Amino acid sequence: MTNNWFRTVLNRLFLLVLLCLPVGLLLDQLAWTLVVGLALYIGWTLRQMLRLHHWLRTQPDGPPPEARGSWAEIFNNIHQMQRREARRNAKLQAIIERIQASTAALNDAVVMIDYEGHLEWWNHAAEKLLGLRAPADGGQHVTNLIRDPLFVEYFEKASFKEPLDIPSPIDMKICLQYTITRYGRGDRLMIARDVTRLHNLEQMRKDFVANVSHELRTPLTVVVGYLETMLDAEESLSPRWIRALRQMQQQATRMHSLLNDLLLLARLETTDSTSDDESIAVSQMLSRIRQDAITLSAERSHRITLTSETERYLRGIEGELHSAFSNLVFNAVKYTPDQGDIRIRWWEDQQGAHLSVSDNGAGIAPEHLNRLTERFYRVDSSRSTHTGGTGLGLAIVKHVLMRHQGRLEITSTPGKGSCFTCHFPTQRLTSEAYQAPGE
Ligand code: ADP
To answer: How far apart (Å, rounded) are the C-alpha atoms in residues 54 and 66?
Structure first.
């Protein structure tokens, strides 16, 4: 095509020169005739260019201007390109409309947010669930419209691995789960699902567990009390009864700790974490826990050492941290053979504050490590039952740490021992002693 077009142009020029030749020779002004001929050709070309420019500027979608020869070919090619483009655009538009129609029909709110955080597009459900108004809210920053501090923190932290569950900005009774995905050049697709039903069910489950645990505590206290009274009069009982009563007392005590742990877990799940923060002298707390561990170990004679390398305070809730730390230390006592070594270390570095409890006990096989913090997960249920464990200890530790922006790291080598480390961020450390009001 290009070659043909070029040949046509050359042919035309050649024809022009051929035409100018006899006229130039006749007038004896060959050079001037050629100049005039070429000037005419340039003038004609300029005129075609102006027509092209005018067409493209005024009505590019209309038919091309009438032309002949090489310019006709140029006009036609451009016109065809435009029609192809228009067809492609129409196809794309149809696809976009179909996608928009299908997302509009979704029950979940879908919101497209640009790389700066401004709203670009949203579906009908977003208007119902998030209260967005079209077109007024278009171009607004998302945090101007969803102002919940938890959402603002989630959006600004820009780590969207976990979804966020918070009440809807227009109705506190609706619980929404936000998930955000990045695409393109930092743009974000936000999906908000109504999880009110799931949330209510979850709440019912938590309330049920808490209520049952609470209700069971009173009858159990009565049973334990009577068992104690009966065992006080041991001399009047036959050895068979004494054995039975002792076992009953042991199991009742286990049930008591189980109920206490269940209640603690329920409280950790249902209450707000940030309200009662105070400064906790961790090294003092650890030395008390060490004393309790020595008492628990008793004749099993573990060597329990404590190294505190920082005297700075940790901001948090004392009761919860005490439960978490003592769970780790008591587990080490429970799962380390007699005379074993248990080392407690509390230190601080650039990453934050850390507490590790390591032992040289039986250790844990790698396949169990990820599941240890699940409720009632036990590596060896017979050993745990024997040690009086509830199976909730590490679940409590995990929850407490989460409420203190911390995390639990578990490393273990079977046959050599285990190390449980709690990591806290630097902003949790403070040099000032502070007690929550009302203490
Ligand atoms: P439990 O009440 O059964 O101790 P936990 O949640 O505290 O429940 O611990 C879960 C399981 O993790 C335990 O059953 C035990 O098998 C294992 N475990 C915990 N700490 C240690 C440890 N220091 N050494 C070996 N195993 C441990």
So the answer is: 13
CA 193 to chain centre: 15
Q: Give the SS3 label for residue 184.
A: coil
- Residue 439 pLDDT level (bands cut at 50, 70, 90): very low
Length of the chain: 439
Which residues have CB under 6 Å of ligand 1? 327, 331-332, 335, 359, 361-362, 364, 372, 378-380, 384, 389-395, 418
**pTM score > 0.85 for this model?**
no
Of 46-55, 239-248, 280-289, which one has max mean pLDDT? 280-289
C-alpha 158/C-alpha 161 separation (Å) is 9
Q: What is 198-270's CATH number?
A: 1.10.287.130
Please report where in the chains the tokens 């979804």 appear, as a residue.
163
Mutate to test the pocket of ligand 1, among 335, 373, 386 (most ligand atoms within 8 A of CB): 335
Angle subtended by helix axes 318-335 and 282-297, to nearest 10: 40
314-354 confidence digits (pLDDT tens): 999 999 999 999 999 999 999 999 999 999 999 999 999 99
In 195-326, DSSP assigns E strands to 278-280, 303-308, 313-316
CA dist list (Å): 331 to 72, 101, 422: 90, 57, 14
274-430 topology per CATH: Heat Shock Protein 90 (3.30.565)
Cβ atoms of 363 and 413 within 8 Å: the answer is yes
d(CA 268, CA 12): 90
Distance separating alpha carbons of residues 384 and 335, to the nearest angstrom: 9
Regarding predicted confidence, which is higher, 57 or 68? 57
Q: Within 10 Å of residue 83's Cβ, how many Cβ atoms?
A: 11
Rounded Cα distance between 363 and 345, Å, is 19
CATH of 106-194, one of 3.10.150.10, 1.10.10.10, 3.60.10.10, 3.30.450.20: 3.30.450.20
Angle at 408 between CA 403 and CA 409, to 5 degrees: 165
- 117: number of CA atoms within 13 Å, CB side? 13
Q: Is the dihedral of CA 46, 47, 53, 57 positive or negative?
A: positive
Ligand 1 centre from 203 Cα, in Å? 28
- Both structure tokens of 422: 């709690």
Can you tell me whether residue 94 is helix, strand or coil?
A: helix
| CATH 1.10.287.130 domain span(s) along the chain | 198-270
- Burial of 257 (C-beta count, 10 Å sphere; 0-12/13-18/19+): middle
